[in-house]
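Bug report (template v2)

What were you trying to do?
Predict the complex of my protein with nicotinamide-adenine-dinucleotide.

What happened?
Run completed; filing so the output is reviewed.

Input:
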Amino acid sequence: MLKGKTALVTGSTSGIGLGIAKALAQQGASIVLNGFGDVEGPRAEVAKLGVKVGYHGADMSKPAEIEAMMKYAAAEFGRVDILVNNAGIQHVAPVEDFPPEKWDAIIAINLSSAFHASRLAIPAMKAAGWGRIINVASVHGLVASAQKSAYVAAKHGLVGLTKVTALELATTGVTCNAICPGWVLTPLVQKQVDAKAEAMNLSNEEAKKLLLAEKEPSLQFTTPEELGGLAVFFCSPAANNTRGVAWNMDGGWAAQ
Ligand code: NAD
């Protein structure tokens, strides 16, 4: 379905981003990976699916590096047809103890990066008459949790940016939608499991169960594969007129 298209997925060396990159590759899209840490492992996992794979290590908190990444994608792949704004970090602390530099980093990486990548991707998508922008927000783009001020603010902002982008592009072939996961067991969430296990003297399994029981009626983690399926839907012809939605995959978290 996506043969001939190129998808750039930010923060795709791990977790949800890698799951989405693989799901889009399974549909035939060429993939540009981005993110830190091990690059060769994720690159090989995607290449195994038989598509062209590139990588750019832009730090998504730095607009100049985002611009360099978009230039790299255009030069090596011709155009970015699908932009998945997924890179994100988390920090947990009450407002009065929240380190200001962590606030700035979370807003830059989880919110401003999506603005910069989108503003640079939109002109070519409009010119081509087709494009997909998928913002990986969170259930925290719809509801709040204590101790996650910067994250909740960034994700609510990202849902807002999704709606505005969708409206501005409503008469074009370019859509913009958001994905709002609940708990997904990636390195980002494992850190929170570890913190809970340590604070409450629990085993890893007990801490995971407690995390789910506190928030997710389904008592299940959503998987990167399931989120990849939603990204594929947003790229499918069935979603041509799906614009500005924030679709939660959260085990019923936000329905409570
Ligand atoms: P993860 O830690 O497994 O992956 C994060 C990715 O972002 C990695 O590839 C990392 O290298 C990259 N990254 C971090 N900082 C970066 C930077 N400055 N520049 C470029 N890349 C950077 O986390 P994840 O759980 O897969 O999270 C991915 C997205 O999903 C995030 O936006 C997160 O907020 C969102 N999300 C996660 C969950 C969850 O439960 N895991 C739930 C809702 C939303």
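What did the reviewer find?
The chain has one domain: 6-182+222-255. The chain has a mean pLDDT of 98.
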